[in-house]
Amino acid sequence: MSDDTNDQAGHEDQPVPPYSWYALSVLVLIYVLNFIDRQILSILANDIKADLGVDDAYLGFLYGTAFAIFYALFGIPLGKLADSWKRVRLMTIGLTLWSAMTAVSGFARDAATLTVARIGVGVGEATASPSAYSLISDWFPARLRATALAIYSSGLYIGGGVSLAIGGVIVDNWNKAFPDGDPYFGLAGWQAAFIAVGVPGLLLAMWVVTLREPVRGAIDGLPTPEDPHPFRGFMRELYTVIPPFTFVGAAARGAGALAINVAVFLGALAAAHVVTSLLQSGEGIIWAALGSVLGLALPAITDQWLLLAIGYYSVFCWASALRQRDYPTFMLTWGSPAFLCTILGYGTVAFMAYSASYWGAPYAERVFDVSKAELGFWLGGGGAAGGFLGVILGGRMADYLYTRTSGGRIWVVLFGLLSPIPFAIIQYTTDIWPLFLALNVVVGALAASALGAAAASSQALVLPRMRGTATATFFLATTLVGLALGPYMAGYVSAQNDGDLSAGVLSTLWITPIGMVLLMSALRLVPKANATVVERAVAAGEPGRMQAAS
């Protein structure tokens, strides 16, 4: 065994200092608030639908695509910034932004304003997980990393559950006290709920900024010096991912690159037009506004498919630029079949899980004779408990299986894909309220078991300096596959079937075979990829003699 390997083993055996657990608890609190601000839309959906005159497809778009595209795209440059700047500062700024935009959502009077506010929430929340994943990887050794990531991820389920309980109580009490809106601003209950959950984040930001920044890579025996120019990389990534600057970035790589870039852009818009024409007529707010500014009669494209087309095009631009600028990182992420199968496989889990978790409250409110407060308490509490238990136990099981086989974590992701399905079918077809609640816990727990395993697997396939970028890429799968498509599809199917959310939610199960193929491929590819991280990085041009930590 080499001296470097002995040194890394020594770091592995060291006890975790109490401060790491304290810092992790603060990160969990941030993630709780993150998902309160994101998921509260679920309990408010029916009220928004009635007040703004929108349908289920728009509600799915608002929760999914409008948030997800900007969350995913800004996660790319912010992931790069998390790899080069102070992660605690970055998270503090993001927390302030998304909390402020959540409060702004409460003053929306139309669909356009609410859409813009939710886009702002997506941009702010894009700072959280790249920073947190990178911090956790520097606070905890590899042997506990999946567990620590699972504990952090529990904030997702706690926040999602708490949001329903808080939202239900606020809406019921506000509407009871002010049936015609409050006398000062005329705010309805759903608007007051947005404001009530947005303001506390501004206070939490003052606590978060006090966290100590760990030395990057030190816990793995690979201390990495700070980047003397951290914002250069951020601006470069921003320049390559936001149209129309993407054309300039492509032109800098040559005429051929520009031609391909323009062709992909036009192809994405053409595909969006075709899908819009096949599914529905008309155009979206954003597309119509663009046509008005340009003075052109543009072909019909709805906001759902416009933003999705821009999202996929922007990801292509970023990956193309990454390949040229940082070939080792490109090869260990986009160039790695093991990495892609892992993150896309988990994306199919998210496709179904996001749909069920978002539409659960609107479905229950339409089917069962319960108040919002009661619905929020039982559904939110059960969802939080199930998700928390599932993600923690799934993380522990992933670490346990990983010690026995290098593909052990992938088995947990596969379990999270398949095990919820029979219970979800019963949940969204029963007319028995207690059974619906019990199955909500079961489905949430089983689906949640995959998250820590998938996150740790993606982190294990890259070098320490690449973790922020790898996290951003991981969240591309969960957002552009899971969040941007799953809830919208369920809402669209529901809207086409007179508001039948049972048909909408269960329609998302079609993605299961795709997930199985991806994860079975990952089971075959990940063990070898884990064992050859350093060799592949060096072969791709990584300077120096590096080591990786799983």
TrEMBL record:
PROSITE patterns: MFS (PS50850). Pfam families: MFS_1 (PF07690). It is found in: Membrane. The chain crosses the membrane at residues 19-36, 57-76, 88-108, 149-170, 190-209, 258-279, 285-318, 330-355, 375-398, 410-429, 435-456, 468-489, 501-526. InterPro entries: MFS, MFS_dom, MFS_spinster-like. Keywords: Membrane, Transmembrane, Transmembrane helix, Transport. It is a multi-pass membrane protein. Its main location: membrane. Residues 23-530 form the Major facilitator superfamily (MFS) profile domain. This is MFS transporter.
